[in-house]
């Protein structure tokens, strides 16, 4: 029996050895020729964020009026807007923004708006822009003025925020102030209404908006920080020349139900000085009409006009199409 067992063990070892000689080379070949697919964690991180979009100078992005627009056409804008000279460093989002600016400027250039030297100088002074940025802002303003009905007015304004906070004329000027009592609130509302009545009477009598604001500042010190002239905070101004130009409001149908704009849009050259209160005792304005401009202008806003002009503007690049769809 022991000899038989020994021979069986030897035979088993021999068979195992032969199988090992066969299996190991096969496994080696399979592993080397057909490596296993790496898991997500073992992949190159750079490959996970790499996009398939390649923006070479001659990559076509869009067409406008039948003319292709290439990446290289946006080089000057890239330098102006992003301070880069190589558009390869820009993303699809960047190029989409530049493309829209490029087409808008092409549209403005085609409008034959005449000399805009004065408008450019005003933009440079008031907005701190220069070069093409000043030029196209001036063109935008002149087009809006000449093509859209608009109102030149002086206004005395109070925006009474939810608190007596910092006198800003914006709705969300400050969070709710728990220290403000109902009595405080009623006093502010009462003073604002009295000041608006005073402004209406004085402006109807021909007193300038600057002088009216100055008197309100002196007569109603409790609400001086809430006082605005032409929708800008007055803040004890002492320079009348800063307020000598009427503010221009253009028609925008999205504002048509707002109390201020609803009143303004109904005013004509002969309308008397008008007081209008904001909703929910949030202040109000007194409006003195100077002139209604471009009576036959299109009653719409600039953005909608621009969209109408872009009917022959088509994005052809797939990556930029994805950006547009995501907006």
Q: How would you characterize the overall build of this protein?
A:
This protein folds into two domains: 60-115 and 303-326, no CATH class; 149-300, Chitinase A, domain 3, CATH 3.10.50. The longest helix is centred in the N-terminal third of the chain and has 32 residues, at 2-33. The chain has eleven helices and nine strands. The termini are far apart. A hairpin with a 2-residue loop joins β1 (60-64) and β2. With 327 residues, the protein is an alpha+beta fold.
Write a short abstract of this structure.
With 327 residues, the protein is an alpha+beta fold. Helices cover 46% and strands 14% of the residues. It folds into two domains: 60-115 and 303-326, no CATH class; 149-300, Roll (Chitinase A, domain 3), CATH 3.10.50.
């Amino acid at each position: 029996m022991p000899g038989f067992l020994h021979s069986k063990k030897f035979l088993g070892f021999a068979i195992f050895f032969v199988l090992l000689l066969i299996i190991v080379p096969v496994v080696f070949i399979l592993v080397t020729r057909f490596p296993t697919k790496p898991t997500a964690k073992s992949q190159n991180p750079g490959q996970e964020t790499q996009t398939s979009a390649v923006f070479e100078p001659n990559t076509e992005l869009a067409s406008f009026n039948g003319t292709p627009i290439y990446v290289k056409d946006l080089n000057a804008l890239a330098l102006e807007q992003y301070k880069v000279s190589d558009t390869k460093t820009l993303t699809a989002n960047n190029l989409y923004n530049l493309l829209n600016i490029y087409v808008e400027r092409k549209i403005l250039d085609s409008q034959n708006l005449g000399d805009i030297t004065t408008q450019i100088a005003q933009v440079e002074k008031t907005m701190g822009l220069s070069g093409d940025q000043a030029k196209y802002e001036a063109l935008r303003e002149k087009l809006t003025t000449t093509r859209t009905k608009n109102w030149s007015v002086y206004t005395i304004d109070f925006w009474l925020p939810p608190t007596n906070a910092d006198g800003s004329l914006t709705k969300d000027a400050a969070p709710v102030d728990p220290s403000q009592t109902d009595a405080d609130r009623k006093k502010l509302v009462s003073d604002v209404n009295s000041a608006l009545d005073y402004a209406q009477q004085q402006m109807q009598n021909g007193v300038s908006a600057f002088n009216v604001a100055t008197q309100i500042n002196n007569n109603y010190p409790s609400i001086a920080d809430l006082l605005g002239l032409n929708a800008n905070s007055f803040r004890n101004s002492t320079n009348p020349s800063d307020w000598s130009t009427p503010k221009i409001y253009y028609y925008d149908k999205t504002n048509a139900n707002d109390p201020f704009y609803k009143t303004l849009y109904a005013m004509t050259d002969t309308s008397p000085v008008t007081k209008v209160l904001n909703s929910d005792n949030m202040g109000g304005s007194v409006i003195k009409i100077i002139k209604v401009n471009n009576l036959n202008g299109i009653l719409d806003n600039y953005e909608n006009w621009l969209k109408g002009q872009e009917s022959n503007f088509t994005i052809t690049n797939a990556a930029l199409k994805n950006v547009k769809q995501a907006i």
